[in-house]
Amino acid sequence: MRLAVLTSVIIVLLFPVKATLADDCEKDVTDHRGKMTPWEKGAWETGEYRNVFLDAGYKQEDIDAKLTKAYYDVFEGPNKVYFEVGDSMGYVSDLKNHDARTEGLSYGMMVAVQLNKKDVFDRIWRWTKKYLQHQGGPRDGYFAWSIKPETLERNSDGTASDGELYFVTTLLFASNRWGNDTSINYYAEARRILDAMWSKDGSEGINNILNVQHKKISFVPESERYHLTDPSYHLPAFFEIWAEYANDGHEQFYRECADTARVYLHKVCHPETGLNPDITDYEGNSPEWSKRFVAFRYDSWRVPMNIAMDYAWYAKDKEWQQDYGRRIQNFLFCQGIDTFVDQFNVDGTTPEWILPAGGFKKLRHSLGLVSTSAAASLMGTQAKSWKFVDAVWNAKLEPYEDGYFDPYYDGLLYLFSLMHLSGNYRIIRPNSND
User: Fold this and answer.
1) In which domain, by residue range, is 51 found?
2) pLDDT of 191 over the 90 cut
3) CATH no. for residue 126?
4) Same domain, yes or no, for 336 and 314?
5) At 8, is the pLDDT very low, low, confident or very high (cuts 50, 70, 90)?
6) Which of these is catalytic: 222, 230, 240, 299?
């Protein structure tokens, strides 16, 4: 009897302690900079881009130097992922997977157009168009998503829809920045992809990149996986750009895609943790048949940064986005600002199965997620958000203790984050060549 009573007392005591610890973790921190105050209007309206690093107290010359070094490391240094070919071409390679993929090629183009590096942009586009874009057939205008850059053997002829999403957006930006009278007509190339996209209705097994019924981007435009989507492909800001600059007669549809993307993100981001699965159907439900897709993993890292971009550019969903930023930063902070790992079930528990990368199968404190969670500070409302900014400022693109090193995915997300937080990831309007 005494043992039972004692046990009951211990249980009663432990639960309040656990709750108190959780409550303490969720509370904001004390910081000399006070609470972060997000901007209330988007750059589309104001033309202004926030330099969060400057607001955090870092010097402009140090911010410029950090961004310059990150670009050097990813595109020019000894561990670079960008390689030039001959006099006029180049590509970005996922070194750990020994391929070049539309994801990284399009990211390289976005970096180049944002930082006004026309030669790099043109080289990547020429290489991508020559070796990956389908010329004719049912997939005409689309891109094979992966290729071996050494042998130019395609790993697949199939398409990953995020590549086309970025290609169109970067080409529209290039058209606005550099015009179309140089060696590449960027607008015509963007329209080639868009017009090809709208010509596909599934009759030859290939569909529109955008599911017309659901007004959402597909995971892939073919096979049974056309009925799936990837939360990290939902970039409302990019669809707003298409509505403004594509001029292909589908402007209202693109605006509706931006709106449905925002609503979809509400559904897939957990109400407490803010975490999202890698893949869902169009209603936001995870496919239970795949243990790979149901958890927050590598693709999912991009979602905080994508939502922050939409906030910074358009601020059309700011109340929900500020709350989302609070939730996901609170969750990761409670895991340890310097130790949170990179894969979770969406409720915050540890998944039974860990998705491997580069021959390694383990959880780690990944630079990619450190970077994107810091970008979420663009919509931050807590003093805690400064800690994420400091974390990415102090981070380094270097091998982990176990030897794993990913200058491709970690490196590009890190570079994107520095661009966002320094105010250098922008809507490029016509005649923006500065």
Assistant:
1) 30-80+300-434
2) yes
3) 1.50.10.10
4) yes
5) very low
6) 299
Cα 242 to Cα 210: distance, rounded to the nearest angstrom: 13
Backbone angles phi, psi at 175, to 5 degrees: -60, -45
Residue 162 lies in a domain: yes
- For residues 430 and 315, membership in a common domain is answered with yes
92 lies in the same domain as 211:
yes
DSSP H helices in 269-316? 302-313
Same domain for 168 and 88: yes
**280 falls within a domain:** no
Task: Clarify whether residues 210 and 331 are in a common domain.
Answer: no
Domain boundary among 228, 243, 271: 228
Indicate the Cα dihedral angle 331, 335, 338, 342, nearest 10°. Answer: -80
For the record, the structure tokens of 384 come out as 């805690």
Number of folded domains that form the chain: 2
Report the candidate in 315, 294, 319 with the shortest Cα–Cα distance to residue 240: 315
Burial of 304 (0-12, 13-18, 19+ CB in 10 A): buried
Rg of the Cα trace of the chain? 22
Percent of the chain having pLDDT more than 90? 90
299 noted as active-site residue = yes
Question: Catalytic residue among 103, 164, 189, 342, which?
Answer: 103
Q: What is the pLDDT of residue 315?
A: 98
Predicted confidence (pLDDT) at residue 401 exceeds the cutoff of 50: yes
At position 146, the amino acid (one-letter code) is: S
Q: Is residue 275 part of a domain?
A: no
**103 and 127 assigned to the same domain:** yes
First to last CA, the chain: 80
Q: Which pair of structure tokens corresponds to residue 38?
A: 């997000």
Per-residue confidence (pLDDT) for residue 433, from 0 to 100: 66
Question: In terms of domains, do 106 and 196 share one?
Answer: yes
Same domain for 183 and 95, yes or no, is yes
Which runs of consecutive H residues, i.e. helices, occur in 215-317?
236-245, 251-268, 302-313
Q: Is 103 a catalytic residue?
A: yes
**Using H for helix, E for strand and C for coil, what is the string for 110-161?**
HHHHHCCCHHHHHHHHHHHHHHHECCCCCCCCCECCEEECCCCEEEECCCCH
Reported as a single tens digit per residue, the pLDDT across 351-393 is 999 999 988 999 999 999 999 999 999 999 999 999 999 999 9
pLDDT per residue as tens digits for the range 23-53 = 568 899 999 999 999 999 999 999 999 999 9
Contact 186, 174 (CB under 8 A): yes
